[in-house]
Design a protein that fits this description.
Largest sheet: 7 strands, antiparallel
Number of helices: 2
Distance between the termini: 18 Å
Shape: globular
Radius of gyration: 17 Å
Oligomer: single chain
Strand content: 25-35%
Order of helices and strands: EEHEEEEEHEEEEEE
Number of domains: 1
Helix content: 10-25%
Structural class: alpha+beta
Number of strands: 13
């Protein structure tokens, strides 16, 4: 899809390596005002600190956070800021982990209904010790990941700034008036089932 501008908004990518495979999670943030260098830096730092403090400690030590990249989506030539204060931020759980492509899905909900108003974050590097059986996380591990993502939502919701779901299409058709933004208000897990992200397999995708 060609570039579609999202006014006063930024895309924030959490970039990791997992057994040499480059993987990422991303979230959109509406700044509540034109995006400038200070806003990009502030949000990138918030997201890095969240991964470091609230997320990666419960994931496999094989996962390494390399950088957080915040990009102004107002135009195709918008500025970008990369935050990478160190190269040693790794998962905190030793021992066996599930394969690269296994992830746990945390749903991102807005106050609106419908698929266009919801998003997903697929958490990588699941330790075997966090599983209840071959297909499920323990309820405690699932709850901890949901709570962690809720913390990110809360951290990014400051004054007029808020994380959002950006809906570019409706019923498979590009929205004629441009993207619609749905503020994210909660993180939810509908079950404890593990999911698959095929592009995260070593040698596949990015």
């Amino acid at each position: 899809m060609p570039f579609v501008p999202v006014s006063d908004s930024m895309q924030v990518e959490m970039r990791y390596t997992l057994f040499s495979q480059h993987i990422e999670n991303r979230i959109f943030v509406h700044n509540g005002a034109p995006v400038d260098a200070a806003a990009l830096e502030a949000v990138a730092i918030i997201v890095w600190d969240w991964v470091e403090t609230h997320l990666i400690g419960g994931l496999s030590e094989n996962l390494h956070l390399n950088e957080v990249v915040a990009t102004d989506m107002t135009s195709a030539e918008g500025p970008q800021f990369t935050y990478a204060p160190d190269t040693t931020t790794s998962g905190g759980v030793s021992g066996a982990m599930l394969p690269n492509e296994v992830a746990f899905c945390v749903s991102l909900h807005s106050a609106s209904r419908g698929r266009s108003a919801r998003g997903r974050m697929f958490i990588p590097a699941i330790p075997v010790s966090a599983t209840a059986d071959a297909n499920n996380l323990t309820a405690i591990a699932a709850g901890a990941l949901v709570s962690s993502v809720q913390t990110l939502i809360n951290d990014l919701t400051v004054d007029a700034r808020q994380p959002v779901i950006v809906s570019f299409r409706h019923d498979g058709v590009v929205r004629p008036g441009g993207p619609v933004l749905f503020p994210i208000i909660s993180a939810v897990a509908t079950d404890t089932l593990l999911d698959s992200q095929r592009r995260r397999k070593p040698g596949v995708g990015a």
